[in-house]
Structure formats: C-alpha cells, structure tokens
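#struct-help
A.M.: can someone run this one for me? Single chain, 216 residues.
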Amino acid sequence: MVSDFCSPDLGWLESKDGKREARILFKAGKNHDGYFDCDDLCKQIKTAIGLFEEHFPNKSAIAAFGFDNAPSHQKRAPDALSARHMPKGPRHWWGKDGKTKMRNTWLPNGQVQELYYPDDHLDHPGQFEGMEKLLEERGLFEEAKLRAQCPNFKCEDTTASCCCRCVLFNQPDFQNQKPAIFELVESHGHIAFFYPKFHCELNFIEQCWGHAKMHY
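D.P.: on it. Structure tokens below:
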C-alpha cells in the first residue's frame, strides 16, 4: 500500500534536497505491518505539514489538505465530544476508549462547561458529571429527565428529544466536532476538507490512481 501527498505546486511532497518525503510504503496485514489507521495517517500528516512549511516558511502560506471520504478518516480524537456511551448520572467514566477524559466544551452563553467534577468534590471526586447534569447546565431541564437512550440508540427520529443521548447528540458543539485529522491540520493553521463521496471526476485521488494504472 502507498500513501502519499501530491501538490499542484510541488508534485509529490518531499524535502527541498529530495532526501525526505511524505510517502509511506505500508505492507498491510496482521502478519506484516498491521493496518493503516487514523493514528498512522496523523503521523504522516505531521510529516507532510513539516515538508510543506519547509518549502513555504512564511506563515502566510496555507495548505489545503484534501482527504478521501473514508470511514477511517472520520475518526475523532480520543478526547473528542461524543454522546455515545455517556452515562446519565455521575460515575467514574473515562471516555469512549476507557482511558481518556473527554475534553471540556462550551455552554450556549460562551461559558466553559466542565464534564468532570473536581478531584476534591465532596460527593463525586473526579467523576464524570453525567448527561443529566450536562443538560441541566444548558437549561434543558425537561430533556434531562428523559431516559438515557432509546433501545440500541436507534431513535425513530434523530432530531427529536426522545432521550438524553439524542438531545446531546444534536447540540451544536457535539454536531460540530471535527475528525482528528481536521483538528491536526487546523492546529497548524492549514485547511482540511473531504472529497465528495462517489465522485471520481471530482476526486483527485481517483485521478491519480487512474493515471498510475495507465502508466504501469
């Protein structure tokens, strides 16, 4: 498997002296290099950003990184906002991976909303506050009384106020949570976007793949 970055200005992305490149050759499979996942892509993106900024050291140069609209590219950071698996009440809960505390977010009035009680809290030291309290802090008192989630989180209407999880899922800050690769690119002052699904004529990756087939 080959993963690389190509620029209309620079061609295949590499250092000025040609000794370093963004390209990764990956032998996929459990008996080889494993499987190229979001963490591997993030490492490669860091390399690509460094190579781009080497060519354009002035801070005014902005790269637009286009990615294939693949499920693995949609993965969010371990501490990203997600209503899935959130408990309704306070308890020791360490995010969706069981190891990482979920990041704080913002209330509609712009105030920071902390998702965990402080370590010196009298009743729930260090515990996750729970969906009920999060909704109450947003002024959604009636919604806070709803059940935690519909069976198997399969709500009949995903925009309805049918359960705590669905209400939180539709909050603007949860809706606007970006994939990990977008957050990484934007943290360096650049732009990230997905190519449209199933549109090979609009997807540079498909054009590149087609050219490689013709060439070889």
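A.M.: thanks! The first helix runs from residue 38 to 55.
D.P.: also worth noting: The chain has two domains: 2-76+178-215, 105-175.
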